[in-house]
Task: inverse folding
């Protein structure tokens, strides 16, 4: 391994088994292929790929299987959490399927990556999430078991609000979850998706990153599609707990 761990974050793929189906008039499969091509052109092979939810929009088993085929050229292990549009049963039937694993915890170098479920007790007609007490207990146990590891958390719903971008609190128990994170000095960053846009908020020493969708971009509450390009996040995690990250956009517009 090099002096840093490289992580590729993809989010909000919203794929369909039918290649002709569009999501808000956007060809999400074509967009994802453009993103993957951009990654391969501009970056070396990542050590880890994280997908932070909304893998499939139609919930079909074949769509989850298709995703494994599309990701295979990256030649890197893939870990995921479900989004509010995913079908848990289909995903669990499809995976593990090379290169997509089912583990929700990864130890790599001086870091641990914890994939946190934010879809506890979904409410009909609501896009909001919730993190269960059991998930928070699991996180506490993992951090306690590995006090020498810096921690990256990956989840679907973003936690802080960001009113100037039309994003309010997306997790019903957000205050409890963030307070729980703040108990642990080794938690350095939290990656999320869900809102189809980029922002960063730093609170109590923890960096919260939201990442652009691989498909369309929007102002969350208005559901207004913006002119921003689809994209992804790249991270470098260093042995001393330092990290670097940037968002890359794919210049050709979705169609």
Result:
């Amino acid at each position: 391994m090099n002096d840093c761990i490289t992580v590729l974050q993809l989010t909000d793929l919203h794929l369909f088994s039918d290649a002709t189906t569009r999501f808000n008039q956007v060809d999400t499969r074509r967009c994802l292929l453009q993103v993957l091509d951009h990654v391969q052109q501009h970056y070396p092979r990542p050590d880890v790929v994280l997908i932070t939810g909304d893998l499939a929009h139609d919930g079909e088993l074949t769509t989850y299987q298709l995703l494994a085929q599309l990701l295979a050229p990256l030649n890197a292990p893939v870990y995921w959490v479900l989004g509010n549009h995913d079908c848990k049963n289909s995903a669990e039937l499809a995976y593990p399927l090379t290169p997509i694993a089912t583990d929700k915890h990864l130890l790599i170098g001086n870091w641990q990556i914890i994939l946190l479920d934010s879809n506890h007790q979904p409410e009909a007609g609501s896009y909001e999430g919730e993190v269960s007490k059991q998930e928070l207990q699991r996180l506490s146990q993992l951090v306690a078991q590995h006090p020498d590891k810096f921690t990256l958390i990956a989840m679907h719903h973003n936690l802080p609000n960001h009113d100037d971008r039309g994003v309010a609190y997306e997790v019903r128990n957000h205050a409890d979850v963030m307070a729980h994170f703040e108990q642990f000095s080794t938690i350095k960053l939290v990656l999320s998706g869900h809102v189809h846009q980029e922002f960063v908020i730093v609170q109590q020493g923890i960096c919260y990153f939201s990442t652009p969708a691989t498909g369309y971009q929007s102002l969350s509450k208005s559901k207004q599609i913006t002119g921003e390009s689809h994209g992804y996040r790249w991270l470098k995690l260093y042995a001393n707990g330092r990290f670097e990250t940037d968002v890359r956009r794919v210049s050709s517009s979705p169609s």
User: Anything to note?
Assistant: The chain is about 20% helix and 25% strand. The radius of gyration is 17 Å.
